[in-house]
Automatic annotation (TrEMBL), chains A, B, C:
Signal peptide: none annotated. Coiled coil: none annotated. Keywords: ATP-binding, Cobalamin biosynthesis, GTP-binding, Kinase, Nucleotide-binding, Nucleotidyltransferase, Transferase. GO terms for molecular function: adenosylcobinamide kinase activity; ATP binding; cobinamide phosphate guanylyltransferase activity; GTP binding. This is Bifunctional adenosylcobalamin biosynthesis protein. InterPro entries: CobU/CobP, P-loop_NTPase. GO terms for biological process: cobalamin biosynthetic process. GTP binds at G16, G17, A18, R19, S20, G21, K22, S23, A41, T42, A43, E69, D89. Pathway: Cofactor biosynthesis; adenosylcobalamin biosynthesis; adenosylcobalamin from cob(II)yrinate a,c-diamide: step 5/7; Cofactor biosynthesis; adenosylcobalamin biosynthesis; adenosylcobalamin from cob(II)yrinate a,c-diamide: step 6/7. It catalyses: adenosylcob(III)inamide phosphate + GTP + H(+) = adenosylcob(III)inamide-GDP + diphosphate; adenosylcob(III)inamide + GTP = adenosylcob(III)inamide phosphate + GDP + H(+); adenosylcob(III)inamide + ATP = adenosylcob(III)inamide phosphate + ADP + H(+). It holds the Pfam family CobU. Its EC number is 2.7.1.156, 2.7.7.62. Catalyzes ATP-dependent phosphorylation of adenosylcobinamide and addition of GMP to adenosylcobinamide phosphate.
Length: 174, 174, 174
């Protein structure tokens, strides 16, 4: 069941819990392909904890990446990324940004799907699995996990590969 | 690892996180069998959010279903459902109903198991995976996830098939 | 995908959500091997709920086990356990103990890894999957799930077998 880093193509969705090694696994999928590689970072460093996290992730990444930071216009960043392999890390923060900016989630998701379909290079999308705990008491958190779950379902339906990482190891779901 | 909607028989348990596509997958398992199909709904529409959810689920379902609403007597509803395939959506709300009504959970689970064993038609049970987050601070939530986990274990032990849905895709666990 | 209780060797990591049957599955892996068996319990009975849980787990265990209780020095307990199979139940409580005692987590994890590498007998480690829910609002809970996730990744990287239990059934991850 472990994955041998065979070459992916099309769209790959890598889901996993917190600290499940999803980013590292996803990066390995991308760097197994010929470059240049584009890293689309959706994280906004709005506190020290987040800044530390982003810094640690960047330090762990091997050289050879072009990093693009994007908060909302993920579709535009994908269109501008050319034909090489792209890593999007992560869908969860992007969705949070879209919700916090009060944008229309359905429209943003539709634009993302169109941008993914238009790419010729491989795209690896990282997302947090957030739906396997107790129902959150907070209504915004409930809305968020509903949107996240539906987003993952839509992307998984057309993705070429879907993985769930557990303790750093990939379970192949599709 | 993806599931080809092969015909299920006996008891099938479909677990998954919130918005993981478990209901849709479970419905597909039932409608792959000859009808008539019975949908046993355990949801109580006690607020607008829940009413919306139920309405959306009903609208998405294809015609040809007989819908039965039940809050507590799931065993009785299964006994009354005849020999055709039955979908129970979902165990989690039923267990919540049983706990909120202060009924004996062990007795209710034993009655459910007896009713399932007595059926000749296929039964597909949907349940939420709720145990993969941080320990809830709320004691009732802790008790709930303990009961849910034990219920799923008991049903899985005798089920013919068990699936975990991830992003709308089934992982076959048994 | 279900596991036939084939004989494990080296280090086995069994992860699972709350009430997912991980302890029972892990015990079955150990008792499928020749004894004597050592059970290293990391639970501290600091309230009635926990005392009940520990008592219930002990009552369910078959005779033939030597039980060792340890709060912090898991590496020492592993070194003292001899060459027979050992079950550690669970990593999650041990990590909690280490954090609450304000010990250095990285040093404790390094000592654990060294102790595991030095064993000749099989070691089965049980841990809670806690990272698949919504981000906890509590900073300590966030730190905990980060530490737990990284611990699981490190152990899984060198483990011979890794399982995720779902409803009492094992998914083989490695």
């Amino acid at each position: 069941m472990t994955h041998e880093h065979t070459a992916v193509s099309g769209v790959t969705l890598v889901l996993g819990g917190a600290r499940s090694g999803k980013s590292r696994f996803a990066e390995g999928l991308v760097t197994a392909l010929p470059g240049p590689w584009t890293y689309i970072a959706t994280a906004q460093a709005w506190d020290d904890e987040m800044r530390d996290r982003i810094g640690r992730h960047q330090a762990e990444r091997v050289p050879g990446w072009t990093t693009v930071e994007v908060l909302l216009d993920l579709a535009g960043a994908l269109a501008a990324a050319g034909d090489g392999p792209v890593l999007v890390d992560c869908l969860t923060l992007w969705l949070t940004n879209v919700m916090l900016a009060d944008r229309d989630v359905a429209a943003a998701v539709a634009a993302l799907e169109a941008a993914l379909a238009a790419r010729t290079g491989a795209t690896v999308l990282v997302g947090n699995e957030v739906g396997m705990g107790i129902v959150p008491e907070n209504a915004l958190a409930r809305a968020f996990r509903d949107h996240a779950g539906r987003l993952h379902q839509r992307l998984a339906a057309t993705a070429s590969q879907v993985f769930l990482t557990v303790a750093g190891l990939p379970l192949k779901v599709k």
